[in-house]
Request: fold
Amino acid sequence: MNTLISSITPNIPWGIDVPNYFWFTGSSAAAFIISSFAHVFGMERYKPIAGFSLLMAFVLLVAAPLNLIDDLKQPGRVLNFFMYGWENFGTSPMKWGVILLMAYPVLIFFEAIYIYRPYFVKKMATLSGVSHTFYGLLTLGRMGMSQEDFDKDHRVGKLLGIIGIPLALCVHGYTGYILGVVHANALWHTPLMPILFLASAMVSGTGFLIVIIPIFQKFFTSMGSVNHDTMVDLAKLLALFIVIDLVIRFLWLTFAMPFNGEEKYLVYAFFELNFHEVLYVEYLLCLIIPMIVGFSALRNNFIVLYCAGILSVVGVWLFRWNTVIGGQSIPKSAPGFLHYSPDIFSQSSIVSIFSNWGILIALVCFILVIFPWDEEMVESYSKRVNHGK
Reply:
């Protein structure tokens, strides 16, 4: 019988903010990859949502570090990331993260600037005063509307997208790397951890787009309806990513449990303690069912598809929770598992998580007011429909 002990060792160092941070960065990487399907690889079926996905990648990445700042308890401590430890850069994944978290959003921003430049020029013609000047700055001083100018926008945007793909993978891969290098934790210490985090990130990012895109298509575009073809494409993509995620999780668990050393008994005990939550909720409800929906005719039912998207989002968040918080519960010197319950209020609490999500929603609204994503979405959808005819 397992005993819960909370007084032998100090509190778990990483609280609820950290799995939330991992979810934000992972979903950002996935949204960027999906936008690159159209901007880099020229896959027309994703063109209606490519710009929107790119903007979602940006806001998710901007909001993500706020979770870390909250987890630090004293916001001023964030300066330590920039001031100290550079002498250990070659062996410090956290220092790699500092560079990645600064470079990645800047790259996304400039890619969006080049992609939307023609829209900004058109917008300027209808504005005056401060708004006119603001959109003028977003054009980077390039006011040309010739085919040559459009071709340059496309070339530069595609180049930034090509650079951004490995950068996006590294941004979230390093989070898994941080866990994987911890020798003292039997659940984390595996070279598969960065790949595992990336695979589950593609699931959460795709699910996030399935949840949020219909809302904006229905209520904030002139279409006034959901692009069903795009949703079906995302459902198929979600099912494929879930298969990849499950395969990598199988490799992770089969290496960690049967073929590990003495640590495997701790991993066995961990999954025994969390068996019902992991198997029935995280795997069956939040992964297997959405996968079945994506591979079957059920994807044509919008309500079922939308629920599958929500389940996949929740499932990956639970995986982040079970991996980060659960991994810290595994004892090193105590005779039983540690127990962690987040506070309702204060820093690194349930309320702070809702606050971080509130900031994300505010950033989404702010960015989508500036960028004419709705015009691009309607225009791209119309071209796709006409091309299909």
About this structure: The chain has one domain: 7-378. Strands lie at 4-5, 337-338. The longest helix spans residues 147-180. The longest strand covers residues 4-5.
